[in-house]
Amino acid sequence: MESRTIYNGPYYRYDMNLLDRTIETCTSAAQKHNCRLFYAIKANNESPITTRIRKQGIGVDCVTHGEINYALRQGWNTSEIVFAGSGKTIREIDYALRNNIGVIHCECPEEFEIIQSLKTSLESDTSIALRINPDVKVDTHEKISTGEKHHKFGMSVNEAKALITNFPTEIVGLHFHVGSQITDLSYFEDLSLTVRGIIEKLPTGYELSYLNLGGGLGIDYTNPLRNSIADFEGWMRALRTYLPESVIDTIFLEPGRSIVAQCGQLVGEVQYIKHRKTNPTAILDVGMTELMRPALYEARHKVTANKDELIEQRYTISGPTCESSDTFGAGHSLPELERGDLITIHSAGAYGSSMRLNYNLRESIPSEYIESQVKTYLKRKVA
User: Fold this and answer.
1) What mean pLDDT do residues 362-366 have?
2) Which CATH number fits domain 262-370: 1.20.1250.20, 1.25.40.10, 2.30.30.30, 2.40.37.10?
């Protein structure tokens, strides 16, 4: 809900109370199921957001040199950082090892050779885990599915076994991640069963001390106000189905979207209404440069108008960028819109500001962090 008295342009708005409740729900579930959390900072790297996450004892999952550097500057201890990524450069690996981060997730045998060589010469304390591609198919968008054998991520089970056989004391454990925005928890049960089978076939005598099952828990983009907190309890319970503490004491997880998505909204303003009689289309002052998911994944976000009117009609909501793909989709049921009306695009806390572009040389928009929201409807006066 809007808290400003004057609209000075589009902005991201964050409900920090909801963020706090989400973090508490997630960490409580993790404590119950003996899971350790590493926030996937690619979802949102705004300092007020990451500071609250860090202060609750959650580590950080990084995929670039820049993210590691940012995490260190934000105050995370080196032991609280894990480093993943399918195409790590030698420079990035060297940087991670020199800073003695907690764990580096190795994606292939060639990368292991680089890590092992640098780790020895630098006398680094960083641990090495192997990312395995388990060939598990999940029901999510093809562009955010990562766990099938044709995907670029991870190594095969046989490649991992060979490395463990040759370097049993140098490898602390395994890493898996099968995709994002997974809402059917049975897929996490399937992952649990698959991983259990892999563990049971590891070389005799190998001691598995680290098991990271990634992230992937989805949120409700359709009803974000009704379902504002993801099912962390169900997620972790599903992963423990075939991996009880008798098999592995602690499971490491990397939630990102599920922690921050629902606390963030993107606020913009209607500039023009086109095709009123045939296909009512509202052109906003925000678009794919501020929230790329719809253009990139054909993702659909809930859109609301900040005005009280009972009679609604269906609109196509589009951005200002010179691309036909710059749209938030058709069929949004909204009150009758006119120039100057404010529009809220929900569930924008993840992969909104962190993926923003300066395409068309559009300027970055600001963020507001609200502790308590007051419901007021605003409309800029139009000359």
Assistant:
1) 95
2) 2.40.37.10
Among 245, 196, 186, residue whose Cα is nearest residue 218: 186
One-letter amino acid at 300 equals: R
C-alpha to C-alpha distances, 176 to 123, 191, 215, 236, nearest whole angstrom: 27, 9, 9, 15
b/e per residue 150-166 (b: at least 16 CB within 10 A): eeebbbebebbbebbee
Residues 101 and 81 sit within 8 Å (Cβ to Cβ): yes
Give me the CATH code for the 16-259 domain, please. 3.20.20.10
Task: Kindly report, residue by residue over 158-200, the tens digit of the pLDDT.
Answer: 999 999 999 999 999 999 998 889 999 999 999 999 999 999 9
34 pLDDT tier (thresholds 50, 70, 90): very high
Burial letters 121-141, b for 16+ CB under 10 A, else e:
eeebebbbbbbbbbebebebe
Q: Give domain limits for the chain.
A: 16-259, 262-370
d(CA 76, CA 62): 12
Query: How is residue 373 written in tokens?
Result: 């929201």
Tell me how far apart the alpha carbons of residues 215 and 199 are, in angstroms, rounded to a whole number: 19
What is the DSSP annotation of 210-225? Answer: EEE----B---SSSTT
Cα–Cα distance list, 47 to 71, 79, 136 (Å) = 10, 20, 35
- Average pLDDT, integer, range 85-102: 97
